[in-house]
Amino acid sequence: MIVPAFLEELRSRDIQVWTEGDQLRCNAPTGALTPELRDQLRQRKSAIVQFLRSAEALARQERAIVPLQPRGQCVPIFAVPGHNGNVFSYRFLSQHLGDDQPFFGLQPPGVDGESEPLTCVEELAAYFAAQIRAFRPDGPYVIAGHCAGGTIAFELAQQLQQQGAAITFLALFSSPYPTWFRLLPQLRRRLAQRAEWLSTHLQALAVRSMEERRRYIIAKLAERRRQHEAQRDASQPSRLAAPDPELLRRTRLEAATLVALRRYTPHQFAGRAVLFLPNRDWLRPGNMALRWRRVARDTEEYCGPEGCEGDVMLHEPHVRTIVEQFRRCAHQPECPGRESNPHAVADTGF
Q1: Which residues are CB-neighbours of 330 under 8 A, at least 6 positions away?
Q2: Closest C-alpha to 265, from 350, 150, 172, 179
Q3: Mean pLDDT score across all residues of the chain
Q4: Is the dihedral of CA 87, 90, 95, 97 positive or negative?
Q5: Is residue 254 classed exposed, middle or buried when 0-12, 13-18 and 19+ CB atoms within 10 A define those classes?
Q6: Whole-angstrom Cα distance, residue 232 to residue 108?
Q7: Gap between the Cα atoms of 255 and 85, Å rounded
């Protein structure tokens, strides 16, 4: 009799069986657990424990692990999405990597509407680590993160490594260092954007006649007014329209993720971190994505094509370049004595 059928027979006799670590526990009404059944439980202990663990893992998998491409023999990739929790932002990358590359998205609590979002990076990473170890107890793993998800992926890789799991490498796609999400850097960024906006318009006015300047200013003011009206309408939907529950969930999750990122301080990662940057402009000194070099044992950078930006680097057509870079990176051997090169930059051919 196979294990599921045997367990079904036990349930029909009101005999409950569960695991506690490596132990198999049993609770049965008086007389229900006959000597024959007791002997079968002893003989099948290992198979029953393995089956029950697999069932528990599958049940937990439904909450966090989304199989974007479950087939293949390559080292599986577990990828944390950006701050909105949308794992399907990886769909093009998983498709182009092919049928031999298992690829799983990690969906954070709060997306399903049945659980509260977490506001601590360490707790988010621990949640994902437990899911991964239950789903695939034996490594190695490739851990990935996009944008805000890069910080969570960094902590996840650390926790898995501390638990004894082998991390082939950590892939960070356009992922700023977490201090970038704090209030003061965000204020500086907005001020820099304002200054750039003002400089652009001053240069445009400088080469125009007085009449052309007047028309230019009127057109820009009208355009800005339309933008403000559109934003106001979007933020104040009709009172008759019910709030979109999906939008509300995403908004709460985004806010919780930003709180978590602002509180987090990375510690040293004894592994290989690969920074996938949208374009070569991200290599300029001061770019917050390059600060990961300070906290990883080994780092290397791959730059996307000219004109690529972080929010679309995993979309068509840019994803094709990223896939080739990822394959090149994945086929590099990870040797214990590999020399660290924190400033290595891959040639993309662009």
Answers
A1: 74, 75, 142, 168, 169
A2: 179
A3: 83
A4: negative
A5: middle
A6: 30
A7: 11
SS3 42: helix
- Percent of the chain residues past pLDDT 70, beyond the cut: 83
Amino acid 9 reads E
Place of tokens 């051997």: 333
CA pair distance 322, 172, nearest whole angstrom: 12
| CA–CA distance, 222 with 200 (Å, rounded to integer) | 18
Q: Where are the alpha helices (DSSP H) in the chain?
A: 3-12, 35-43, 45-64, 91-97, 121-135, 149-162, 183-206, 210-235, 245-263, 318-330
Is the pTM for the entire model greater than 0.85? no
Structure token digits, residue 261? 């990122």
pLDDT at 343: 43
Question: What's the pLDDT tens digit per position in 232-266?
Answer: 665 555 444 556 777 788 888 899 999 999 999 99
| 159-191 pLDDT per residue, tens | 999 999 999 999 999 999 999 887 666 566 566
What does the chain come to in residues? 350
Nearest to 150 by CA among 80, 203, 238: 80
